[in-house]
Amino acid sequence: MKKNTGLANADDAVxxxxxxxxxxxxxxxxxxxxxPFLGPAFIASIAYVDPGNFATNIExxxxxxxxxxxxxxxxxxxxxxxxxxxxxxxxxxxRNLAELCRERFHPVVVFIMWILMxxxxxxxxxxxxxxxxxxxxxxxxxxxxxxxxxxxxATFLILGLERYGFRPLxxxxxxxxxxxxxxYLAETLIDKPDWxxxxxxxxxxxxxxxxxxxxxxxxxxxxxMPHAIFLHSALTQGRVKVKEPGQIRKLLRFELVDVLVAMGxxxxxxxxxxxxxxxxxxxxxxxxxxxIEEAHRTLEPLLGNASSWIFGLSLLASGLASSTVGTSAGQxxxxxxxxxxxxxxxxxxxxxLPSMIVIMIGxxxxxTLVLSQVLLSFGLPFVIIPLVLFxxxxxxxxxxASKPLVTLAAGIVAAIIVxxxxxxxxxxxxxxxxx
Length: 435
Prior knowledge:
Elements: H1 6-23, H2 30-34, H3 40-45, H4 51-64, H5 69-93, H6 97-104, H7 107-140, H8 144-159, H9 166-191, H10 195-203, H11 210-223, H12 226-236, H13 245-280, H14 292-303, H15 305-338, H16 344-361, H17 365-379, H18 381-391, H19 394-397, H20 404-434
Helix pairs in contact: 4-11, 4-13, 4-17, 5-10, 5-11, 5-12, 5-13, 5-18, 6-15, 7-8, 7-15, 7-16, 7-17, 8-15, 8-16, 9-13, 9-15, 11-17, 11-20, 12-15, 14-15, 15-16, 18-20
């Protein structure tokens, strides 16, 4: 229940402005007209710049230079398409992806999907929680376990904003995204990268051995994230309620702008992470910087004290924001698949257990982050394939069903993900046979 405050009333003002724009009575320039529709994609986009991205991008840049930069941009193009389809599903049907899976699939399939998505949610939370704890440790020198406890409390405080409506939470999460983007803009200016090499590697697909393929799968898993797809469809399903086809079409166009702006910002941040690692570590002979702590330590003597602080701040902002978003996504997944929910504090406690165990037994945080992102890539086909099926179904979507070309593009994305996953499974087996 929302409290009757100025914060709660902000939702009403946003929804009123949105409906006025859709009715054709809204006034002002393009920015003023688009502003009420911005928000859902920015919350979903936090999943694309979580600490798992730090781990995979830093290792990829320090090990292979700018070589895998094209993977980041290809992954973000895939993300834009997938998130746009997810948003459209919620707007047109009024239901989220998890709810539609429950309605349309056999109960056994639904149960298996739910368990799988809960495991994926735990892998996601592992990256986010450990990343925030690392951020606290790197900035303030406190033990990792204390940073973990602070992360739990900070997440509860941020999630508490939901009682005031959707706009305050959207504003805070967007603020975190802005902090991360500004930090990496500063890092990019400090490290003076090779812009010519960046331009070439953005458009030149290539790998350098099996390890580069594993890291590419990790980048993909850290970029196109399962829980963000479920979350986005839920964020749009009832935010602005319209039934008239013309208004729905307008709303879809505005939501597409939201996706392009938010995912564009996430793409810039991801690219900047890899560029920083390539230009600072790889180009200066520090090849294979494979941990976040090592990256933070090495930045100071190479680029100065300010750079290491900027890095730590961006990691902390990323961890806190993505941990909050991940908890919300977990609630939506459970409610959608099994029509049940548990208190947020209990869900947070359950999903945080693997992360606390990792910290307490002393596993390397960065290795754990990279492996968690590879695990996420295994869950993606079970999310993307239903999304493609639903959004192309004319009985469900009516005139807003995806065009054949869009369905083909989304199908290719799913095929690429499945192929990468098969490679990850078969590559060790093949090596064993050859050996």
